[in-house]
Amino acid sequence: MARHNICYHDQPMAFFYNNSNITSDEWDRTQLILVQCVGSICCCFILVANAMIIAAVVTNKRFHYPFYYLLANLAASDFLAGIAYIYLMFNTGKISRDLTVQGYFFRQGLLDASLSASLTNLLVIALERYISIMNFKVHSNLTKRRVTLLIALVWGISIFMGAVPSLGWNCICSLDLCSKLAPIFSRSYLIFWSVSNLVLFLIMVGVYLRIYVYVMKKTVVLKAHTSGSMNRKRTPIKLIKTVMTVLGAFVICWTPGLVVLLLDGLKCERCEVLKFKRWLLLLAVLNSVMNPIIYSYRDEEMWNTIKNLLRCSRSGTRRQRSSKANIQRETTSSLKENTTEDSKVSTQEMLKS
Q1: Helix axes 29-59, 300-352, angle to 10 degrees
Q2: How many C-beta neighbours within 10 Å does residue 259 have?
Q3: How far apart are CA 134 and CA 237, in angstroms?
């Protein structure tokens, strides 16, 4: 009973790993270097690709609609995920045992906040799509102010969810309740986290399926009465297919991890949850890699905008180089002209004298 009344805030993470009997979850040096190299390439792609998606939405006026603003916010959550994965890769293995409690909370909080941001973004996009599709419009009538408030709400919820364990829902003062996958997270928190996310997955899948069925029925009715305007009416279906592809990839990549977290929270001794830890992290990274590819593949206008941005950046660097070369040429020519003028003046003075 004495262990329940003592808090271990000043202990390193090695103390909590030993408490959870985690001794075989070590990365050897070759594995760690390989994971860091491959992971760094993937994370660089995540950062660059999602930054290009955000830049495309900002620069192209055709994307200045609520749906694309929310899509850019989803790309921003993947950008945060890329940062979280980089931080995790270089603070894992033996290094994780030397982390302080606050450092571990920060590392896991980044991951939880990015997952919450992606999930909440998909919920908000579902709301926006429902409003627009029920009126059978390509874009909803949400004002920029409301979209900004929704984006602020998404990040407020995400930051709060990432900070919940550090705010008190942990096992630092009750070691018997600690989990294996996250040695300072209580098992009750893992159950809450995994169950709530899985329920939200089911809700979103149901909402998007309902919207898709409604649109298909509406399209069939319109086909019987209209012919020339159907190309314009197919645009809402394209947007829904894009979001459903993103949602499908998100569910496939994150559901196994949430199930393993749930098993750990339920204290499943025979499940050997630590064996799946690294593969589940790889799936999570893969999801953030896939999203920008899905945006550009499903949306031709998005892909063309990204290509134009890449061309502009290349031409911009060329222009900078050429302008620097021209400046150097002008300076050298001006220096030559000044020297020739000075020599002429000096010879004239000599002749006069």
Answers
A1: 80
A2: 16
A3: 13
Do the beta carbons of residue 262 and residue 194 sit within 8 Å? yes
User: Helix crossing, 277-298 with 66-89: angle to 10°?
Assistant: 150
Which residue type sits at 296? S
Return the DSSP state at 234.
T
Tell me the percentage of the chain whose pLDDT exceeds 70. 80
**Backbone dihedral region for residue 93 (phi beyond 0: left; psi -120 to 50: alpha; all else: beta):** left
State how far the alpha carbon of 114 is from the alpha carbons of 74, 80, 83, 163, in Å: 10, 6, 9, 12
150: enclosing H helix or E strand = helix 144-163
Amino acid at 99: L
**Whole-Å CA distances, 6 to 1, 3, 173:** 10, 5, 6
Which residue is listed with tokens 């799936």? 283
| Number of Cβ within a 10 Å radius of residue 325 | 10
pLDDT band of 351, cuts 50, 70, 90: very low
pLDDT at 72: 93
Give me the residue label for tokens 């309740």: 177
In Å, how far from its chain's centre is CA 98? Answer: 27
Strand segments, DSSP code E, in the chain are: none
CB 163 within 8 A of CB 102: no
- Distances in Å between the Cα of 52 and the Cα atoms of 27, 38, 293, 313, 336 are 34, 21, 11, 11, 45
pTM: 0.80
User: pLDDT tens-digit profile of 217-230?
Assistant: 777 776 666 555 54
Please give the pLDDT value at position 79.
94
Residue 29's φ and ψ, nearest 5 degrees, are: -65, -40
In the predicted model, what is the mean pLDDT of residues 283-309? 85
Question: Which residues face 186 on adjacent strands?
Answer: 178
| Cβ neighbours of 210 (radius 10 Å) | 12
47 half-sphere exposure, CB direction, 13 A CA radius: 11
Residue pLDDT, tens place only, 70-82: 999 999 999 999 9
Instruction: Give the C-alpha distances (Å, rounded to integers) separating 51 from 1, 68, 203, 230.
Output: 52, 14, 29, 34
